[in-house]
Design a protein that fits this description.
CATH topology of the largest domain: Jelly Rolls
Radius of gyration: 21 Å
CATH architecture of the largest domain: Sandwich
Structural class: mainly beta
Strand order of the largest sheet: 1-21-18-23-16-15-14
Oligomer: single chain
CATH class of the largest domain: Mainly Beta
Number of strands: 23
Largest sheet: 7 strands, antiparallel
Distance between the termini: 39 Å
CATH superfamily of the largest domain: Jelly Rolls
Length: about 300
């Protein structure tokens, strides 16, 4: 199952006004696109607007793209900014609001896909406080739960070079570690380390020449392209993906990405359900090599 669309024009195409004044939501991936576990969309809240405090029967997370929304999580209020992300465990009360200074836009992932069923979202009696009372999250505080910040590998490196000497930098634990391979950097944002059980969200950066060979997964993936352009091979078809597009690959969809553009490429990627501990990747090239050797893939070493 494959689905491609523009996310920068999403509200022009089919943005839906919610029941809350000033709030709109547009689906990028969901049941209508063939997803079972992935409910991915854009949420927009106008200046001065607020949502009621509510809970979901599914996991949800968000990544701020534009503006400075305020989020209430449990009994705390935080002033967010672009590059911030937040995770809401199942049944966690939360609400959004925006000061009169400007609108806010964020990417929103829910899992499993609820497709907007009203019974899966319940408004609670307690309502959020004034947005002006919120403060920035204390990133680096070991008591901070369910929030983080990441805007890309190059911006982080530039910030360190400008502000921090080699010694005395904030320590980077596993929750902030980067996985780098084949010209690709992956920064996990929402994952078990942040408390998630049903989904993941992470940032991917491709350097020129970076490549992920064709593979597939036993879970759903979605891609929101933020910067640059990259060549993708999806189910044997080659096409170029550019900033402003979104892609959904269902379970078993063969896909690979190759940065032949000569520039930097960045996207946000989601997975639902969470990958299993083993066999989360299948590389067809390995099995094709086995077949060319005339071996039966079902046989085991030592079999007659």
């Amino acid at each position: 199952m494959i689905h491609v669309r523009s996310w920068t024009r999403a509200f022009e195409d089919d943005g839906r006004d919610g029941r809350v004044p000033g709030y709109a939501h547009c689906s990028l991936v969901g049941r209508s696109t063939g997803a079972v576990h992935t409910d991915l969309g854009l949420a927009r809240l106008s200046a001065g607007a607020r949502t009621p405090r509510h809970v979901h029967s599914f996991e949800q997370c968000a990544y701020v793209l534009e503006g400075e929304p305020v989020v209430d999580v449990g009994d705390r209020s935080y002033q967010l900014a672009p590059g911030d992300y937040v995770f809401f465990p199942v049944g966690t009360p939360h609400a959004w609001s925006v000061t009169p200074g400007g609108d806010a836009l964020w990417l929103e992932l829910g899992s499993p896909a609820a497709a907007g069923r009203p019974e899966d979202t319940i408004v609670t009696a307690e309502q959020p406080g004034p947005a002006a009372a919120a403060a920035r999250p204390p990133f680096g505080d070991p008591m901070l739960r369910h929030l983080g910040h990441f805007a890309g590998t190059d911006s982080q490196a530039e910030a360190l070079a400008l502000r921090d000497p080699a010694r005395g930098r904030a320590p980077a634990g596993m929750d902030t570690a980067l996985l780098a391979y084949s010209g690709i950097s992956v920064k996990m944002m929402v994952d078990p380390g942040l408390g998630a059980d049903l989904c993941t969200m992470f940032m991917v950066d491709y350097e020129p020449g970076g490549a992920a060979q064709v593979h597939d997964h036993p879970f759903e993936e979605a891609y929101v392209f933020l910067q640059g352009e990259i060549e993708g091979e999806i189910e044997g078809e080659t096409r170029t993906f550019r900033a402003g597009e979104a892609l959904f690959c269902g379970v078993g969809t063969l896909h690979g990405f190759f940065n032949t553009s000569g520039g930097h490429v960045r996207w946000i990627e989601t997975q639902a359900p969470q990958p299993p501990r083993r066999h989360s990747y299948r590389w067809p090239a390995h099995w094709a090599s086995l077949a060319r050797q005339g071996r039966d893939p079902s046989s085991q070493p030592g079999d007659p």
